[in-house]
From TrEMBL:
It is found in: Cytoplasm. Zn(2+) binds at H394, H399, E452. Belongs to the peptidase M49 family. InterPro entries: Dipeptidyl-peptase3, Peptidase_M49. One of its GO terms (cellular component) is cytoplasm. This is Dipeptidyl peptidase 3. Coiled coil: none annotated. Its cofactor is Zn(2+).
């Protein structure tokens, strides 16, 4: 049996994202706008296969060919005849669904490889008994031979994504190390435009979308996106993002491009994602109130006024029901664009993905781990509402706050270096960003997690404000309970985060979970009985753990600890103090077996009791005459597979050929 860390269990949660009601309320023009944007997003999302691992594209094509010829239910009969048990066939369906959901054979949340939970010879027998193999034996044999070894390989380097000997990456050649990545970054920083990604059929869909744009900002936005994807121009994408920010309150919201840098081992290059969603007006009212009060809450944050943006550019903040989210995974909330200069001067947008939140964070009492029995009912009741508050604060006032001190290429400063004092040293600020340096390029490997930690701390800190909670409809005892569950949830998430730590390489594989572990460490360090973490024996006789929190000390001990830590995080970020920032963050990120808590042993307990992350089934859209239809699927591995095979039916053979050609051209790099 394979270590459970490296396969997806047969009973993994699979849920359909419900957007039917929201889609049906759209006008015919809005439906076509959403349709063509969705097509662009899905085709662009295929680039993630090439961004994940050398074998991902070949595996994808092989699975697509199998399921285009036979549905999951039809193939089940073939599997039985080929000698597979029902459990083994279900494991194959789950693996296929997982590859589609993650756009590759590494988990998008955690960067761990997953392999089929059935013997290799059984999978080979099924592949060779399929109709696809029967009709194209030479091509399918070649596909199987090209990917079957890597598909199952769990050599140490291939167990996770990483740079050099720490893992697999397709962002760099196979022989690149950290020093090579730093050299490449210095070269790229000296260039204005650089992009090396192919764009598939995506650009054609963006062109067609323009005809259904609602306004001039949308048309110009799409025009710049097309230029970016055609020419590889980052500057064009930045211009498109500027128009996107100006497009306030659209009914159909979207964003597309190479956006998040979490999976680049160096933390700089963006992975493709594209989403299309419909505004949930009722839920958006909460966020609109939060935006209108933002300038009241920002001064409450624990850093001097000089460390905050000169002016707060009020963003859109809406709750959206996702129609399409193409890429390696679906987040609960987003704060974009990620271009620092645009964020500082023009602003940003926040979105909370309502139909994702309602499914992803629904919790069953019997599956709750590491909490006291007395806390479980309240956690089940308020985990969703408290997370909604946390997401709102995290995205708007977390990622949306704080100033970067910059000296531009002409020598001009955006702050008064003779007057601004560093509150940590009581001395004048002595470091800043210069020229083309950005947050990501300076802080590189820790940038993503550090920033997520800062945003999470802002959420914990500001949720203590009664006027914040009232915006979300929480008053009195209910408000107090929401605060308690929000803080308790963060502590529990910090413990669960140990799943995403690799002891062999002493590295973290997931930015958000590393951030939450850091916060757990900070709150444990605060002492005075605020947080307890004890190793116990479970009712099943196996190792377990119990988290306790003294809710009476959240507003005193807890608030003080987060106040001090959050101020340090912001000051180090503002002043481009990489050395100080890395020392602080690495200290709290350390997982060891010494000290009050044996975190390495606790990690084993977390792995023993972990629950697999849910997968989402998304609908397709289809033009039928002058109308656009929504095609929905059941929430199962089979439903997820059907959604993907039908998604790329129109030009399947050409798409297969393009993917295989690009994969082959990259092959010499590995």
């Amino acid at each position: 049996m394979v270590d459970s860390l490296y396969y997806l269990p047969n009973d993994i949660g699979v849920s359909a994202l419900d957007c039917g009601k929201a889609f049906r309320l759209l006008s015919p023009q809005e439906k076509k706008y959403a349709h063509y944007l969705s097509r662009a997003a899905w085709y662009g999302g295929l680039a993630v296969l090439l961004q994940t691992s050398p074998e991902s594209a070949d595996i994808f094509v092989m699975l697509q060919r199998i399921f285009r010829k036979q549905t999951p239910s039809t193939l089940a009969q073939v599997a039985t005849a080929a000698g597979l048990s029902s459990e083994e066939y279900q494991a194959f369906l789950v693996y296929t669904a997982g590859l589609y959901a993650n756009m590759g054979n590494y988990k998008s949340f955690g960067d761990t490889k997953f392999i089929p939970n059935l013997p290799k010879d059984k999978l080979e027998a099924l592949v060779k008994a399929s109709q696809a193999f029967e009709e194209q034996p030479a091509e399918m044999e070649a596909l199987w031979n090209s990917c079957s070894c890597l598909l199952y390989s769990l050599e140490d380097k291939q167990k996770q994504l990483g740079l050099g000997d720490k893992g697999i990456t397709t962002y760099f050649s196979g022989n690149c190390c950290l020093e090579d990545a730093e050299l490449a970054q210095k070269f790229l920083d000296s260039k204005v435009n650089f992009c090396h990604h192919s764009t598939f059929e995506m650009t054609n869909s963006c062109f067609r979308t323009q005809a259904y744009a609602a306004n001039e900002n949308q048309r110009k936005m799409l025009e710049e996106y097309c230029r970016s994807f055609t020419l590889g121009s980052v500057e064009a994408h930045k211009k498109g993002s500027s128009y996107w920010i100006k497009d306030k309150g659209p009914i159909v919201e979207s964003y597309i491009g190479f956006i998040e840098s979490y999976r680049d081992p160096f933390g700089s290059r963006g992975e493709f994602e594209g989403f299309v969603a419909v505004v949930n007006k009722a839920m958006s009212e909460h966020f609109a109130k939060l935006v209108s009060s933002a300038e009241v809450f920002l001064p409450e944050l624990p850093w001097p006024r000089e460390f905050e943006k000169d002016t707060f550019l009020k963003p859109d903040f809406t709750s959206l029901d996702v129609l399409t989210f193409a890429g390696s995974g679906i987040p609960a909330g987003i704060n974009i664009p990620n271009y620092d200069d645009i964020r500082q001067s023009e602003g940003f947008k926040n979105v909370s993905l309502g139909n994702v939140l309602s499914v992803a964070y629904a919790t069953k009492k019997e599956k709750l781990t590491f909490l006291e029995e007395d806390d479980k009912d309240l956690f089940v009741k308020l985990n969703g509402p408290s997370f909604e508050v946390q997401v709102g604060l995290h995205e708007l006032l977390g990622h949306g706050s704080g100033k970067l001190f910059v000296q531009d290429d002409k020598g001009k400063f955006n702050f008064d270096q003779s007057k601004v004092m560093n509150p940590e040293t009581s001395e004048p600020v002595s470091s800043w960003y210069r020229g083309s340096e950005t947050w990501d390029s300076k802080f590189s490997t820790i940038a993503s997690s550090y920033e997520e930690c800062r945003a999470e701390c802002v959420g914990l800190y500001l949720c203590l404000k009664k006027n914040v909670l009232s915006i979300f409809g929480h008053e009195g005892e209910d408000a107090d309970n929401v605060v308690y569950i929000n803080w308790l949830s963060m502590v529990r998430a910090g413990l669960l985060g140990l799943e995403f730590y690799t002891p062999e390489s002493k590295s973290w594989r997931q930015a958000h979970m590393q951030a939450r572990f850091v916060i757990l460490r900070v709150l444990l360090e605060a002492g005075e009985g605020l947080v307890g973490l004890e190793e116990v024996t479970g009712q099943d006789g196996k190792p377990d753990a119990r988290i306790t929190m003294d809710r009476s000390k959240i507003h005193t001990v807890g608030k003080g600890a987060i106040h001090r830590f959050l101020c340090k995080l912001q000051v180090l970020k503002s002043t481009a103090d990489v050395e100080g920032g890395r020392a602080l963050y690495d200290f709290y990120s350390t997982v060891s077996d010494t000290g009050t808590q044996n975190f390495l042993r606790l990690r084993e307990t977390v792995l023993l009791r972990k629950e697999a992350r849910k997968m989402f089934v998304q609908a397709n859209t289809k033009v039928n005459g002058d109308s656009v239809e929504l095609v929905e699927y059941e929430g199962s591995a089979a439903g997820l597979i059907c959604s993907f095979t039908e998604r790329f039916q129109d030009d399947a053979e050409q798409l297969d050929a393009d993917l295989l050609d690009m994969s082959k051209r990259d092959a010499p790099c590995w």
